[in-house]
DNA sequence: GATGAATGAGGATTCATTCAT
DNA sequence: AATGAATGAATCCTCATTCAT
């Protein structure tokens, strides 16, 4: 099924390993998940630089040294988490999405709904991915913005191309722009919810609550509204 | 003039003073500007937590203690800079914007163009404001996202309301959503430029270069495209 | 054959075992050699304290625990390596040296040449031995300088005594001093080469290259020059 | 006076500052000396890597952070100490040395005696300089061996050249070799004393004792013996 | 008999802030 | 009024060694 590509689809940063060390993989599945969640929490609450391995380690009740037997470094951990969350998201999408690629906007709706469910089910994963998008470039992470976003865009583009072939979009806008707007949509909606419902993601994460406490129905309505505007424009057609 | 409200329009965070201490205000205007620029650079390159007062102080060639005679704390400085940049932006806008509020989309274009010129003229201010939007909430900064964005929205809303009265927009979308999309537009465009031209804002700031090296003509073309889609939608009308 | 004594000839430090554990000896000869070489590399590049067992273990692809089944401790390993290298050197010497002890300076030349060949053939062993000479005394290693050098001197002394009997040396210098100068010679030459040819032993080891890239002919010429001066002095005899 | 050049004469490593920070220079002379001595002790007892700033800081009874207001880094401290000790040594030499450069061997003797007195008076400085000579090259210190020794050699060379002009030395040995042997002499003697009198420099430093507890008369005798051999050679002239 | 996970103190360095001078 | 020295907890990361499995 081609639809699975309509998601973030990262390839490893050339120089940075995004894998855990053997020791980590040898832990029980439960312990691994526990560790991942604690780490995600820290990186969902803080940007890379400010996130503290000490905090993580103390929450995990392990020795500092032990942690470094799981992950080579803070960076490796970060990229491992990134990869992990993307995988999770991919899996999540593959389950939800059933629309044919030809029905582009149905696909988008499905994808957005999938995203919302993902947010509910994996708030930490979702919040972390949200954070990554806002991460500043740095010597440690490289031009992560460009890397991540470009890859995400590249995942969207083929679907857009297909739709272009089917003459879904107006002809005067190029594929790049459309792809960007499509990709941007989910974050725009998230940000809108944040504002409208005065959500403090950080507080919710801290308190182990879902990212946002809005009914799925409500969220879908919002998503549909945004998509409607995206499709037909904001102006009053009658006034034209 | 009403148009000046179509910009970020912050009110001080309730508990945090956003003013410099008297000592700072006693400095010569040049020195004040110098200090502000150095500080902006640091906060444009780093998020709040990671920005270093030590770095600032060393670049300014002043004593640590002196700095604390200018500003009460790192937070005070941050909010002072925020206020300062917003003022700068307001002033900038007031000069550029001439369209009547009734011609909503002309106003938006003007506003976007104004934004681009502001970026060129005050790259540090602009980059800092961009950063603020991505700042994480924290104990030190409070729910800054909500605060800043809400205020910005509130500035946009009256204009939107006016336009709604003039039946500019389709009726099935509420004012909140429209206002949000209007407010969001400028950042969307900025992010698009970043991706399309593979711009690394951080590198440009570091190298004392403009935020992005794209001709104004090019930028305006992009802005118009986005606005066009915003107005009329993305779908192929003929296929409807 | 007596000549074999004209080399470093250590006896174990009283309290420290210099042997590998049984487990190590049960390994195949190849594996043993492999382990020794990796360890030597680490101790040739770093002094005792800074050398890292972790590095060694990771290069060897064995478990940390396994390593401690081969050697009791870092110190034991160090002294084992020391013993091993000295043995190697002894063997090497026994093959090369043919001169009779009576022909003292011929013996020295042979010995020096042997040393150079050893350097080429076993750069790691040689570099390690060089390092040992510069090792600082410490609680962990004891007065290793004194120990090693004294033993080395003791190996030289009988030969010198024999030569003294044969009236090879001037009478106003005692055996201790002569022995010391004889023993010191090889390191002096090595240091001279390092300086003259701007050799960075460390880099060469890292890059798996020979210790120094100087033709044997050149080295022998140097050695002969030094020995000539040692024998006849530096001053212009004609000016006396 | 030209003779002052017959000592280590370093120029700053191109990339590494060898100066203390302003804060350090503002301390009282006594405190500065105290700090220097404690640091020298640590670097006299340990090589660069193993020397611990924590130890230094705790001996100095200051906060970790305070130390970094005196010196930029461990490396800077190291090079500062190196420079300091060399200066001390230079000053010491300038006081002692009175012989004319033409009387080369008298000059050497004076220089050696000066060295011995320096050892007594400034055991920590002397021990540190001794250590530097044995320091391993590393990423942190660069090819320090080559740097330091080459510079030292360059300081010796002009004197040797002068003596060569005066036909002091045999003609079949080049200036490089002679210079090296001259430079090497002082360390050879030091090493000899260490062996002969079973001196443990490290213990003596630890116990705040002089580097070695040998009468100056004895030391001078030794020095003269070595020089005698250097001049006239080791062999029994009568037997020639 | 071999493994490899765990340890926790130690490493160098940076930080925002205070306060005596 | 201005300085700049002092703080000490925080940062990430490495270490040799142990011991339960």
Keywords:
homotetramer, 240 residues, mainly alpha, Tetracycline Repressor, domain 2, 11 helices, elongated, DNA-binding
Protein architecture, described:
4 copies of one chain form a homotetramer. Chain A is built from 11 helices and no strands. Chain A is mainly alpha-helical and 240 residues long. Chain A has a domain at 82-239: Tetracycline Repressor, domain 2. The longest helix of chain A has 23 residues, at 74-96. The first copy, chain A, is elongated, with a radius of gyration of 19 Å. Mean pLDDT of chain A is 86; it is low at 1-14. At the C-D interface, helix 8, helix 9, helix 10 and helix 11 of C face helix 8, helix 9, helix 10 and helix 11 of D. Chain A binds a DNA duplex (21 and 21 nucleotides) through helix 1 and helix 4.
